[in-house]
Specification:
single chain; 0% strand
Amino acid sequence: MVLWGTGMGAQGSLLNAIVSELVPPNKRSTAFGFFDTAFGISWFAGSWLMGVLYDRSILAVVLVSAGLQLLSSLIVALIGKKH
């Protein structure tokens, strides 16, 4: 739980800093609203998917979870190259 909490705190701080750098000051509240909404919907969808997969196969949960993490790492790396 400590590691999960640390990771969530670091992720929240990092993502807020990134959004702040990318968006002008007069649009930040709207950007944070959109970002938090998308983040929440994505979290819900991912949790739902993992629950459905868990009913079918624990191996499927592991494979989909690892695959999505790799995909997100690639997306972050590609975006990082553009900036």
